[in-house]
Design a protein that fits this description.
With 522 residues, this protein is of the alpha/beta class. It is built from 17 helices and 17 strands.
Length: 522
């Protein structure tokens, strides 16, 4: 039932968030995030765009089948094929929603859609009617609303509501709005549409001017009761509204908003870490609510104040967002129960087989390290347990590197379907040489778009975690590797990215390359 005193949250991390440059989540990773969003008690999860690709369709279908207690939404243009694909993907959802949209600004209608306003209204009306024939919840969005004519917006929203839309979404698609102006737009739409009782108005804001959260909060004060956004604000260009910032603003300044939410805010920090780890998009240390420095105090006067009374410099408690540091140290004497408990604290929800694989890897790592940090554990999960590779994947068997004055050499041995391929390469350093050797061995030469390496903790025995992004033939994929040897971590990440390129290409029916060259070339 609609409660005018409560704000609900629509998470689009798995759809709009994944559109961020360089982000490439596989099905297992998306399912992990969806399960944690459900534990956060997010009301709606937009699981993907089913008509976009077979992979997206299957991800939406899997999440709809396996994640309970939430509404699962599928995005669809106002095209009949999109809506039918969304309906089919959502058939097993406990609660299903089709989210259909069409652009309404003169700029988009003229140059992108090449449609008249009358045609846009007609298509929106037909799309909502078709979607409503499949599900009870239909959301209609007017893309680029903040640059649209107000009278036209009121008209199209009225038509959508009359056709059966239960949620009317007002997007600031390109982050163009200013809070005061956006609040006026929202208020005018709500008043002008005068929608039937139970219809919820929603906002979807982008952060191109750094105002996504401010615009969402302004829209809430103007009357919207659904806020759309992503964890960590991840998304295209400057990103989306960061849901953790919106919910904590509503909670911390309840004196201003006077509204409630149903989110379990103590799950915010674990979910933030999970999304950052699996997406490869790091959370800046100064990020509000979930950044590493959000509750850190270094200045002496601040430290003195906090020691006297935390409220002197903390407007919310770290415990409220679940960022209390763990004090239990895991090592080779730790048991499976303690290990699983730590996994859940970090935001993972794994099945028994996945826990077993992770625990075995953890125990092997304990032979190399006295203590294993949270960062090490997260690296184990994201880089090994959740990695999905194609049926015929490449695997590292052995490698050797040598570094001299101005020259590095590397030899690699790669396995594929039991076939051994080896080759050698040179480069500016051991990693560059190893990458050149891999490319020669498998006869595949993708472009390295991004490369980063970091330690999983400040300790000298920390795992080195490498993230690479490869591109070939219009397909891109991200790979990760975590090892105590940073060269091996870099090689593992590269091979992981190659395997993911194959997965992405297969989903799009694209052939990447010819068969590898003869084995044992060198």
């Amino acid at each position: 039932m609609f409660d005018p005193n409560r704000v609900i949250f629509f998470d689009t991390t798995l759809r709009d968030g994944e559109q961020a440059a360089g982000v490439n989540l596989n099905a297992a990773e998306k399912l992990q995030i969806a399960k944690q969003l459900a534990k956060l008690k997010i009301e709606v999860i937009e699981a993907g765009f089913p008509a976009a690709s077979p992979g997206d369709f299957n991800c939406v279908k899997t999440i709809a089948r396996e994640v309970r207690g939430v509404t699962v939404a599928g995005l669809a243009r106002t095209k009949e094929g999109d809506i039918r694909a969304a309906a089919q993907a959502l058939t097993e959802a406990e609660h299903a929603r089709i989210h259909t949209f069409i652009a309404t600004s003169p700029l988009h209608m003229t140059h992108k859609l090449k449609m008249t306003p009358e045609q846009v209204v007609s298509e929106a009306r037909s799309a909502v009617k078709l979607a409503r024939s499949f599900v009870d919840e239909v959301e209609f969005s007017a893309e680029d609303a903040s640059r649209s004519d107000i009278d036209f917006l009121i008209r199209i929203f009225k038509e959508a509501a009359a056709a059966g839309a239960t949620i009317l979404n007002i997007p600031d698609t390109v982050g163009y709005a200013i809070p005061d102006q956006f609040a006026q737009l929202v208020q005018a739409i709500i008043t002008g549409v005068a929608a039937p009782a139970g219809v919820i108005f929603s906002c979807h804001t982008h952060d191109d001017l750094g105002l996504a959260v401010a615009n969402s909060l302004a829209a809430v004060r103007a009357g919207v009761r659904q806020v759309e956004g992503t964890i960590n604000g991840m998304g295209e260009r400057g990103g989306n509204a960061a849901l953790e910032e919106v919910v904590m603003s509503l909670k911390t300044r309840a004196d201003i908003f006077g509204l409630t939410t149903g989110l379990e805010t103590t799950r915010l920090y674990p979910v933030s870490r999970l999304v950052a780890r699996l997406s490869g998009v790091a959370v800046p240390p100064n990020k509000a609510v979930v950044g590493a420095n959000a509750f850190a105090h270094e200045a002496g006067i601040h430290q003195h104040g906090v020691l006297a009374n935390r409220e002197t410099y903390e407007i919310m408690r770290a415990e409220d967002v679940g960022s209390v540091p763990a004090v239990m140290v895991l090592g080779k004497h730790s048991g499976r129960h303690a290990f699983r408990d730590r996994l859940e604290t970090l935001g993972y929800q794994l099945d028994d087989d996945q826990v077993t694989r992770a625990f075995e890897t953890f125990k092997r790592l304990c032979d190399d390290k006295k203590d294993v940090t949270d960062g090490d554990i997260e690296a184990i999960i994201s880089d090994q347990v959740l990695a999905i590779t194609p049926e015929h994947s490449f695997e590292l068997k052995a490698y050797a590197v040598g570094v001299g004055a101005g020259l590095a050499t590397a030899t690699v041995v790669i396995l594929r379907d039991g076939e051994e391929m080896r080759d050698a390469g040179t480069g500016n350093g051991p990693v560059d040489a190893a990458y050149n050797a891999i490319k020669r061995a498998i006869n595949f030469y993708p472009t390295l778009e991004n490369f980063s390496i970091r330690a999983t903790s400040p300790r000298s025995d920390a795992l080195g975690e490498t993230v690479v992004e490869l591109q070939f033939g219009g397909v891109s994929a991200q790979g990760r590797g975590a090892e105590t040897d940073i060269v091996k971590a870099s090689i593992t990440a590269y091979i992981n990215a190659v395997n993911r390129l194959y997965t992405q290409a297969a989903a799009r029916d694209i052939k990447l390359l010819a068969e590898p060259l003869n084995a044992n070339r060198c």
